[in-house]
Design a protein that fits this description.
With 151 residues, this protein is α+β, with helices and mostly antiparallel strands. The protein has a single domain, classed as Alpha-Beta Plaits, CATH 3.30.70. A four-stranded antiparallel beta sheet has the order 2-3-1-4. The longest helix has 11 residues. The protein is globular, with a radius of gyration of 15 Å. The termini are close together. It binds inosine-5'-diphosphate and magnesium ion (MG).
Length: 151
């Protein structure tokens, strides 16, 4: 499948709560293609680089502690409009404000345990994909492509 790529992290609460399959299933069912995926203990240094834009905010230290507290699932998804499609499937940052039907709106309660990260722009996606998958992602054809995409 052609199209842009985005970086997704199923955060430690998603892994600990046994929601990895539920969350990935929602993104897969939209038609997005998994082009990289790993269960990984994110290092503090990587977490700090990933969330550098939030350095200095009151929640920053707790956010980094949360992300490194237990393994996360890091994945790259590909497809037309993948960045915006993934963000809309994830829902608003604060689960209490996230629409029902979204991952955070259906599965989350509080902003400090909101289950999932997804890149918010093309620039963020490029930066985050390079940070988590420096060796790049995998390219492969799916037989379902003509049923998902007009050629
Ligand atoms: P996003 O994940 O929807 O892009 P951002 O504003 O980029 O949201 O914040 C990054 C992450 O920081 C959030 O997903 C959440 O885990 C955490 N966060 C944001 N605001 C707060 C807060 O007010 N308290 C605790 N954690 C927060
Ligand atoms: Mg963000």
């Amino acid at each position: 499948m052609t199209g842009e790529q985005t970086l997704v992290i199923i955060k430690p609460d998603g892994v600990q709560r046994g929601l990895v399959g539920e969350i990935i299933g929602r993104l897969e069912r939209r038609g997005l293609q998994i082009v990289a995926m790993e269960l990984r203990a994110i290092s503090r240094q990587t977490a700090e680089r990933h969330y550098a834009e939030h350095e200095g905010k009151p929640f920053y230290a707790g956010l980094v502690d949360y992300i490194v507290s237990s393994p996360a699932v890091v994945l790259a998804l590909s497809g037309p409009g993948a960045i915006a499609v993934t963000r809309s499937t994830v829902g608003a940052t604060r689960p209490a404000e996230a629409a029902p039907g979204t991952i955070r709106g259906d599965l989350g309660l509080t902003v400090g345990r909101n289950l999932i990260h997804a890149s918010d722009s093309a620039d963020s996606a490029a930066r985050e994909l390079a940070l988590f998958f420096p060796d790049g992602t995998t390219t492969y054809d799916r037989a379902i492509s003509p049923w998902l995409l007009e050629s």
